[in-house]
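ok, trying the design again with the full structure, not the truncated one.
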């Protein structure tokens, strides 16, 4: 299964900020496909295809991390021509976020797939956006998320599998397999 570690941003303390982000996403006009509300997240490490047999070792390794919780405040929405997304960015992400991502990307039991890009924290809102002019981007109100947990998520690798949970528009939903607490 295709796995990734992420901040799900769905903790109870983040309910108002997440709802505001969802409302913002619903008001974007123009090109691209909106990410389903339930799939909004901040990827920390994309692991790729991982055999089911590695899941217990991954969970154990992530459970052993003793890293601090932190807050994360949104700053703006940008369009990135590659990989053609509109995403929320952060003005001054805390060093604890980078430390968490680095640890997860280098887990000895299954290191993340090598990426040619430097880790740049973001939350993807829309896919298939070619440039800034293709989308009406209203000003994003700043929202602060309390990051007290992260999760191991499964991303559907088959679009035809009927057992995959879907939203009301038929889009596949990510599944959180396990949550881990930050200190």
């Amino acid at each position: 299964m295709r796995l990734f570690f992420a901040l799900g941003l769905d903790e109870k303390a983040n309910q108002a900020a997440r709802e505001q982000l969802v409302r913002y996403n619903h008001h974007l006009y123009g090109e691209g496909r909106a990410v389903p509300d339930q799939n909004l997240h901040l990827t920390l490490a994309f692991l790729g295809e991982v055999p089911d047999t590695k899941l217990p070792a991954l969970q154990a390794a992530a459970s052993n991390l003793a890293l601090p919780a932190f807050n994360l405040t949104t700053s703006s929405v940008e369009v990135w021509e590659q990989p053609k997304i509109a995403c929320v960015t952060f003005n001054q992400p805390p060093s604890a976020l980078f430390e968490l991502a680095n640890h997860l990307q280098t887990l000895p039991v299954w290191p993340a797939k090598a990426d040619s890009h430097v880790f740049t924290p973001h939350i993807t809102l829309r896919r298939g956006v070619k440039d800034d002019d293709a989308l009406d981007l209203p000003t994003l109100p700043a929202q602060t998320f309390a990051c007290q947990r992260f999760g191991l998520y499964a991303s559907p690798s088959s679009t035809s599998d009927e057992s995959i949970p879907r939203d009301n528009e038929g889009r596949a939903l990510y599944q959180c397999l396990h949550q881990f607490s930050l200190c």
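Keeping the full-length input from now on. The helical segments are 15-26, 55-63, 95-105.
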